[in-house]
Amino acid sequence: MMSIVGSAPKSAQLMGSVATEMVTETNVPLLLIPPSSAYAGVKNVVLALDLNAPTDAVVLDTALRFARQFGCVVDLLFINDQPTDAVLHTKAEHIRHLMGDVPHTMTIQAGDDVYDTLLTFAHTNKADLIMMLPQEHNWFRRMFTEGETQRMARLTDIPLLAVV
Asked: What phi and psi, each to the nearest 5 degrees, are found at residue 130?
């Protein structure tokens, strides 16, 4: 568990912080808390998944174990620029089947900006927590761009659980 912002809140939003860098370094789930957060129970979680990349079944199982422990409803969110694609729907239904006994909803949302779409969805659905499964990137890509989970951690006002 880490606070997203330390002693320099404005620069952390622009450039990131030690906490946002930990997203790429950790091998255990990492809970990132924004400065505006106050403790509250976790009743509603948005789990954002990228269906364009293979979902790691072990990591997804870890996320579902957290959801069971919280006893919350999980709003599955798939963001894609082609939300009516039949292959995308087949993949989404497969993930939905893996949800098993976890109470959940499923939404496939049109969009190409993960941050804006996810944060708007989370606020609209009154999420207490956002869960993301960070994708592994090679060192070259990490040198020039940040991942979606890092960007969300840098800018969100809702606690974020990066499940690895």
From this structure: -110, 130
Q: Tokens 């993949």 belong to which residue?
A: 91
DSSP calls for 137-164: --HHHHHH---HHHHHHHH-SS-EEE--
Where is pLDDT greater, at 137 or 77?
77
CA distances from 1 to 8, 29, 58, 62 (A): 19, 9, 21, 16
pLDDT value at residue 1: 85
Percent of the chain predicted with pLDDT > 70: 85
Backbone angles phi, psi at 107, to 5 degrees: -135, 135
Closest CA to 159 of 114, 122, 113: 122
Q: Which CATH class is domain 2-162?
A: alpha beta
Domain locations along the chain: 2-162
Q: How many CA atoms lie within 13 A of 114 on its CB side?
A: 21
Strand partners, 2: 32
Interval 9-24 mean pLDDT: 62
CA-CA distance, 112 to 131, in Å (whole number)? 19
Q: Closest by alpha carbon to 163, among 126, 141, 130, 138? A: 130
pTM to 2 decimal places: 0.86
Tokens of 151: 């960007």
